[in-house]
Amino acid sequence: MSEYKALTLTECVDRLLKIKRPLVLMHARPDGDTVGSGAALCRIFASLGKDAAYLPADPIPERLAFLVEGLTLADSADGREAVSIDIPSPGQLGRLRELNVTLMIDHHEVSTPFAPHYTVGGASSAGEVLLGIARALEEHGLFTMTPEIAAPIYAAIASDTGGFAYSSATAETYRSAAELIELGIDHADINHRLFSSKPREQLLAEGFVASKIKTAEDGKIAYATVSRSERESLGIRIEHFETAIDVVRSAAGATLAFVIKETDRGEYKASLRSTEKNVARVAAKFSGGGHVLAAGCTPGAETMNGATDLILDALTELLQSDN
User: Fold this and answer.
1) Which residues are within 8 A (CB) of 259 and not within 5 positions of it... i.e. 6 or more apart?
2) Distance between the two ends of the chain, CA-based, in angstroms?
3) Of 188, 185, 259, 200, nearest to 226 (Cα)?
4) 3-state DSSP call for residue 8?
5) φ and ψ of 233, to 5 deg
6) CA 152, CA 149: separation in Å to the nearest integer?
7) What is the pLDDT of residues 40-62, one digit of tens each?
8) Strand 53-56 to strand 256-262: parallel, antiparallel, or no bridges (unpaired)?
9) How far apart are CA 130 and CA 124, in angstroms?
10) Rounded to 10 degrees, what is the CA torsion of 184, 169, 239, 185?
11) Taking the model in full, what pTM does it have?
Protein backbone atom coordinates (compact mmCIF):
# COMPACT_ATOMS: atom_id res chain seq x y z
CA MET A 1 0.00 0.00 0.00
CA SER A 2 1.24 3.46 -0.88
CA GLU A 3 2.31 5.74 1.95
CA TYR A 4 0.80 8.64 0.04
CA LYS A 5 -2.87 9.45 0.35
CA ALA A 6 -5.27 8.84 -2.52
CA LEU A 7 -7.32 12.01 -2.80
CA THR A 8 -10.93 12.55 -3.73
CA LEU A 9 -11.81 15.12 -6.37
CA THR A 10 -12.85 17.58 -3.66
CA GLU A 11 -9.58 17.08 -1.78
CA CYS A 12 -7.60 17.55 -5.00
CA VAL A 13 -9.40 20.82 -5.77
CA ASP A 14 -8.81 22.05 -2.22
CA ARG A 15 -5.07 21.36 -2.51
CA LEU A 16 -4.85 23.13 -5.86
CA LEU A 17 -6.54 26.22 -4.43
CA LYS A 18 -4.08 26.37 -1.51
CA ILE A 19 -1.00 26.38 -3.74
CA LYS A 20 0.38 29.92 -4.02
CA ARG A 21 3.20 29.65 -6.59
CA PRO A 22 2.63 26.47 -8.62
CA LEU A 23 5.20 24.63 -10.68
CA VAL A 24 3.69 22.11 -13.11
CA LEU A 25 5.96 19.14 -13.77
CA MET A 26 5.89 17.18 -17.04
CA HIS A 27 7.38 13.71 -17.41
CA ALA A 28 10.59 12.60 -19.13
CA ARG A 29 10.36 12.32 -22.92
CA PRO A 30 7.25 14.55 -22.93
CA ASP A 31 4.26 13.45 -25.00
CA GLY A 32 1.11 15.30 -25.99
CA ASP A 33 -0.76 14.31 -22.84
CA THR A 34 1.72 15.57 -20.26
CA VAL A 35 2.44 18.74 -22.28
CA GLY A 36 -1.18 19.47 -23.16
CA SER A 37 -2.60 18.80 -19.71
CA GLY A 38 0.38 20.55 -18.10
CA ALA A 39 -0.14 23.64 -20.25
CA ALA A 40 -3.85 23.65 -19.46
CA LEU A 41 -3.14 23.32 -15.72
CA CYS A 42 -0.79 26.32 -15.91
CA ARG A 43 -3.55 28.34 -17.54
CA ILE A 44 -6.10 27.17 -14.96
CA PHE A 45 -3.76 28.31 -12.19
CA ALA A 46 -3.32 31.67 -13.97
CA SER A 47 -7.11 32.08 -14.19
CA LEU A 48 -7.18 31.58 -10.41
CA GLY A 49 -4.74 34.47 -10.02
CA LYS A 50 -1.66 32.33 -9.38
CA ASP A 51 1.83 32.84 -10.80
CA ALA A 52 2.28 29.47 -12.54
CA ALA A 53 5.26 28.03 -14.39
CA TYR A 54 6.06 24.67 -15.94
CA LEU A 55 9.14 22.46 -15.86
CA PRO A 56 9.52 19.36 -18.08
CA ALA A 57 11.92 16.57 -17.15
CA ASP A 58 13.24 16.70 -20.74
CA PRO A 59 12.95 19.37 -23.44
CA ILE A 60 9.53 19.54 -25.07
CA PRO A 61 9.56 18.20 -28.64
CA GLU A 62 9.34 20.83 -31.34
CA ARG A 63 6.01 19.49 -32.62
CA LEU A 64 4.40 20.08 -29.20
CA ALA A 65 5.89 23.52 -28.51
CA PHE A 66 2.72 25.27 -29.71
CA LEU A 67 0.91 23.99 -26.61
CA VAL A 68 3.08 25.97 -24.17
CA GLU A 69 3.35 29.22 -26.12
CA GLY A 70 3.03 32.20 -23.80
CA LEU A 71 3.66 30.19 -20.62
CA THR A 72 6.58 30.59 -18.21
CA LEU A 73 9.28 27.93 -18.36
CA ALA A 74 11.03 27.65 -14.99
CA ASP A 75 14.74 26.97 -14.58
CA SER A 76 14.25 25.34 -11.18
CA ALA A 77 11.73 24.95 -8.37
CA ASP A 78 12.70 28.42 -7.04
CA GLY A 79 10.41 28.30 -4.00
CA ARG A 80 7.45 27.02 -5.99
CA GLU A 81 5.15 24.12 -5.05
CA ALA A 82 5.41 21.29 -7.55
CA VAL A 83 2.38 19.56 -9.05
CA SER A 84 3.00 16.64 -11.39
CA ILE A 85 0.63 15.66 -14.15
CA ASP A 86 0.60 12.43 -16.15
CA ILE A 87 3.59 11.08 -14.21
CA PRO A 88 2.90 7.57 -12.83
CA SER A 89 6.18 6.82 -11.06
CA PRO A 90 9.34 8.49 -9.70
CA GLY A 91 11.35 7.09 -12.63
CA GLN A 92 9.32 9.24 -15.02
CA LEU A 93 10.38 12.36 -13.14
CA GLY A 94 13.88 11.99 -14.54
CA ARG A 95 16.09 14.92 -13.53
CA LEU A 96 13.23 16.29 -11.41
CA ARG A 97 13.19 13.29 -9.10
CA GLU A 98 14.72 15.18 -6.16
CA LEU A 99 11.93 17.78 -6.10
CA ASN A 100 9.35 17.67 -3.35
CA VAL A 101 6.01 17.14 -5.11
CA THR A 102 2.93 18.56 -3.41
CA LEU A 103 0.32 16.85 -5.58
CA MET A 104 0.16 14.12 -8.23
CA ILE A 105 -2.57 14.16 -10.93
CA ASP A 106 -2.63 11.00 -13.03
CA HIS A 107 -4.65 8.44 -14.96
CA HIS A 108 -2.45 5.32 -15.12
CA GLU A 109 -3.89 2.05 -13.78
CA VAL A 110 -0.44 0.89 -12.66
CA SER A 111 1.61 3.50 -10.84
CA THR A 112 3.97 4.14 -7.94
CA PRO A 113 2.68 7.23 -6.12
CA PHE A 114 5.32 9.65 -4.88
CA ALA A 115 2.99 12.30 -3.44
CA PRO A 116 -0.63 12.67 -2.35
CA HIS A 117 -2.42 11.81 -5.58
CA TYR A 118 -5.65 12.19 -7.45
CA THR A 119 -5.72 9.31 -9.91
CA VAL A 120 -8.58 8.29 -12.20
CA GLY A 121 -7.36 4.96 -13.54
CA GLY A 122 -10.13 4.50 -16.08
CA ALA A 123 -9.61 7.86 -17.78
CA SER A 124 -8.22 7.96 -21.29
CA SER A 125 -5.64 10.61 -20.43
CA ALA A 126 -4.46 13.08 -17.85
CA GLY A 127 -6.27 15.63 -19.99
CA GLU A 128 -9.58 13.92 -19.31
CA VAL A 129 -8.80 13.87 -15.56
CA LEU A 130 -7.95 17.58 -15.66
CA LEU A 131 -11.22 18.33 -17.43
CA GLY A 132 -13.04 16.76 -14.49
CA ILE A 133 -11.08 19.00 -12.12
CA ALA A 134 -11.94 22.05 -14.25
CA ARG A 135 -15.63 21.12 -14.13
CA ALA A 136 -15.47 20.94 -10.32
CA LEU A 137 -13.86 24.38 -10.17
CA GLU A 138 -16.63 25.73 -12.43
CA GLU A 139 -19.33 24.18 -10.26
CA HIS A 140 -17.93 26.09 -7.29
CA GLY A 141 -17.93 29.34 -9.26
CA LEU A 142 -14.15 29.61 -9.09
CA PHE A 143 -13.28 29.24 -12.74
CA THR A 144 -14.64 29.62 -16.25
CA MET A 145 -13.45 27.39 -19.07
CA THR A 146 -12.07 29.26 -22.08
CA PRO A 147 -10.95 28.13 -25.55
CA GLU A 148 -7.34 28.88 -24.53
CA ILE A 149 -7.62 26.28 -21.75
CA ALA A 150 -9.86 23.87 -23.64
CA ALA A 151 -7.46 23.59 -26.60
CA PRO A 152 -4.50 22.00 -24.74
CA ILE A 153 -6.89 19.70 -22.83
CA TYR A 154 -8.29 18.53 -26.16
CA ALA A 155 -4.73 18.03 -27.44
CA ALA A 156 -3.88 15.95 -24.36
CA ILE A 157 -6.90 13.71 -24.84
CA ALA A 158 -6.42 13.35 -28.60
CA SER A 159 -2.73 12.56 -28.17
CA ASP A 160 -3.13 9.80 -25.59
CA THR A 161 -5.97 8.14 -27.50
CA GLY A 162 -4.12 8.14 -30.81
CA GLY A 163 -6.59 10.54 -32.33
CA PHE A 164 -9.45 8.69 -30.57
CA ALA A 165 -8.40 5.45 -32.28
CA TYR A 166 -7.40 3.47 -29.17
CA SER A 167 -9.75 1.41 -27.03
CA SER A 168 -9.05 3.83 -24.16
CA ALA A 169 -11.31 6.35 -25.91
CA THR A 170 -14.65 5.66 -24.24
CA ALA A 171 -18.05 7.19 -24.86
CA GLU A 172 -17.26 9.65 -22.05
CA THR A 173 -14.02 10.57 -23.84
CA TYR A 174 -15.95 11.45 -26.98
CA ARG A 175 -18.45 13.49 -24.93
CA SER A 176 -15.54 15.35 -23.34
CA ALA A 177 -14.06 16.09 -26.76
CA ALA A 178 -17.40 17.38 -28.01
CA GLU A 179 -17.70 19.62 -24.95
CA LEU A 180 -14.30 21.14 -25.70
CA ILE A 181 -15.00 21.55 -29.42
CA GLU A 182 -18.24 23.37 -28.62
CA LEU A 183 -16.15 26.05 -26.91
CA GLY A 184 -14.78 27.02 -30.32
CA ILE A 185 -11.34 25.45 -30.37
CA ASP A 186 -9.71 24.70 -33.71
CA HIS A 187 -9.64 20.94 -33.24
CA ALA A 188 -8.78 20.30 -36.89
CA ASP A 189 -5.59 22.36 -36.56
CA ILE A 190 -4.68 20.60 -33.30
CA ASN A 191 -5.16 17.18 -34.91
CA HIS A 192 -3.05 18.22 -37.88
CA ARG A 193 -0.22 19.43 -35.64
CA LEU A 194 -0.31 16.27 -33.54
CA PHE A 195 -0.70 13.60 -36.20
CA SER A 196 -0.14 14.94 -39.72
CA SER A 197 2.73 17.37 -39.40
CA LYS A 198 6.11 15.81 -38.68
CA PRO A 199 9.60 17.28 -38.94
CA ARG A 200 11.96 15.64 -41.41
CA GLU A 201 13.98 14.14 -38.56
CA GLN A 202 10.92 12.34 -37.20
CA LEU A 203 10.11 10.89 -40.61
CA LEU A 204 13.70 9.67 -40.93
CA ALA A 205 13.50 8.17 -37.43
CA GLU A 206 10.30 6.31 -38.28
CA GLY A 207 11.85 4.98 -41.49
CA PHE A 208 14.93 3.81 -39.63
CA VAL A 209 12.83 2.02 -37.02
CA ALA A 210 10.71 0.38 -39.73
CA SER A 211 13.88 -1.02 -41.30
CA LYS A 212 14.87 -2.60 -37.98
CA ILE A 213 11.63 -4.35 -37.01
CA LYS A 214 12.06 -7.95 -35.89
CA THR A 215 9.42 -10.46 -34.87
CA ALA A 216 9.12 -13.38 -32.51
CA GLU A 217 6.56 -16.03 -31.63
CA ASP A 218 5.40 -16.44 -35.24
CA GLY A 219 5.05 -12.70 -35.72
CA LYS A 220 2.87 -12.12 -32.67
CA ILE A 221 5.58 -10.00 -31.06
CA ALA A 222 7.17 -7.16 -33.05
CA TYR A 223 10.05 -5.10 -31.75
CA ALA A 224 12.89 -2.76 -32.59
CA THR A 225 15.82 -1.20 -30.78
CA VAL A 226 17.56 2.13 -31.20
CA SER A 227 20.98 2.62 -29.64
CA ARG A 228 22.57 5.94 -28.78
CA SER A 229 25.33 5.34 -31.34
CA GLU A 230 22.76 4.70 -34.06
CA ARG A 231 20.95 7.92 -33.25
CA GLU A 232 24.21 9.85 -33.23
CA SER A 233 25.31 8.39 -36.57
CA LEU A 234 21.98 9.44 -38.07
CA GLY A 235 22.15 12.87 -36.46
CA ILE A 236 18.65 12.44 -35.01
CA ARG A 237 17.74 13.35 -31.43
CA ILE A 238 15.89 10.90 -29.21
CA GLU A 239 12.78 13.11 -29.14
CA HIS A 240 12.24 12.35 -32.83
CA PHE A 241 11.85 8.66 -31.99
CA GLU A 242 8.77 9.36 -29.87
CA THR A 243 6.47 7.73 -32.44
CA ALA A 244 8.74 4.71 -33.02
CA ILE A 245 6.41 2.45 -31.07
CA ASP A 246 3.52 3.39 -33.36
CA VAL A 247 5.55 2.18 -36.35
CA VAL A 248 6.36 -1.16 -34.72
CA ARG A 249 2.87 -1.82 -33.37
CA SER A 250 1.49 -1.49 -36.90
CA ALA A 251 3.27 -4.67 -38.04
CA ALA A 252 0.60 -7.01 -39.41
CA GLY A 253 -0.09 -9.98 -37.16
CA ALA A 254 1.56 -8.50 -34.07
CA THR A 255 -0.49 -8.40 -30.89
CA LEU A 256 2.42 -7.28 -28.72
CA ALA A 257 5.05 -4.69 -29.61
CA PHE A 258 7.94 -2.95 -27.95
CA VAL A 259 10.70 -0.47 -28.70
CA ILE A 260 13.82 0.00 -26.62
CA LYS A 261 15.73 3.26 -26.92
CA GLU A 262 19.06 4.03 -25.33
CA THR A 263 19.00 7.49 -23.79
CA ASP A 264 21.81 10.03 -23.79
CA ARG A 265 22.52 8.89 -20.23
CA GLY A 266 22.98 5.29 -21.33
CA GLU A 267 19.70 4.00 -19.89
CA TYR A 268 17.44 1.62 -21.80
CA LYS A 269 13.83 2.77 -21.97
CA ALA A 270 11.15 0.37 -23.20
CA SER A 271 7.75 1.29 -24.63
CA LEU A 272 5.22 -1.56 -24.65
CA ARG A 273 1.96 -1.92 -26.56
CA SER A 274 -0.67 -4.64 -26.87
CA THR A 275 -3.98 -5.26 -28.56
CA GLU A 276 -5.31 -7.53 -25.80
CA LYS A 277 -2.76 -8.49 -23.13
CA ASN A 278 -1.95 -6.53 -19.97
CA VAL A 279 1.51 -5.09 -20.67
CA ALA A 280 1.31 -2.97 -17.52
CA ARG A 281 2.05 -6.20 -15.64
CA VAL A 282 5.30 -6.55 -17.56
CA ALA A 283 6.22 -2.91 -17.01
CA ALA A 284 5.59 -3.30 -13.28
CA LYS A 285 8.24 -6.05 -13.12
CA PHE A 286 10.80 -3.42 -14.10
CA SER A 287 9.53 -0.61 -11.84
CA GLY A 288 7.50 0.87 -14.66
CA GLY A 289 3.80 1.43 -15.14
CA GLY A 290 1.08 2.54 -17.45
CA HIS A 291 -2.13 1.12 -18.84
CA VAL A 292 -3.32 -2.37 -19.70
CA LEU A 293 -2.53 -1.91 -23.40
CA ALA A 294 0.21 0.73 -23.22
CA ALA A 295 3.03 0.93 -20.69
CA GLY A 296 6.68 1.77 -20.24
CA CYS A 297 9.63 0.81 -18.07
CA THR A 298 13.38 0.79 -17.68
CA PRO A 299 14.62 -2.80 -17.70
CA GLY A 300 17.63 -3.21 -15.46
CA ALA A 301 20.27 -4.20 -17.99
CA GLU A 302 23.75 -3.02 -18.85
CA THR A 303 23.48 -3.67 -22.59
CA MET A 304 20.87 -3.28 -25.30
CA ASN A 305 20.86 -7.05 -25.90
CA GLY A 306 20.32 -7.64 -22.20
CA ALA A 307 17.41 -5.20 -22.07
CA THR A 308 15.89 -6.72 -25.21
CA ASP A 309 16.12 -10.25 -23.81
CA LEU A 310 14.44 -9.20 -20.56
CA ILE A 311 11.48 -7.59 -22.30
CA LEU A 312 11.17 -10.26 -24.98
CA ASP A 313 11.17 -13.05 -22.39
CA ALA A 314 8.58 -11.26 -20.28
CA LEU A 315 6.30 -10.61 -23.26
CA THR A 316 6.65 -14.18 -24.48
CA GLU A 317 5.54 -15.37 -21.05
CA LEU A 318 2.65 -12.89 -21.14
CA LEU A 319 1.63 -14.10 -24.60
CA GLN A 320 1.39 -17.65 -23.36
CA SER A 321 -0.57 -16.72 -20.25
CA ASP A 322 -4.32 -16.36 -19.81
CA ASN A 323 -4.12 -12.67 -18.85
Assistant:
1) 209, 223, 224, 225, 226, 241, 244, 245, 248, 270, 271
2) 23
3) 259
4) coil
5) -70, -30
6) 6
7) 999 999 999 999 999 999 999 88
8) unpaired
9) 11
10) 0
11) 0.86
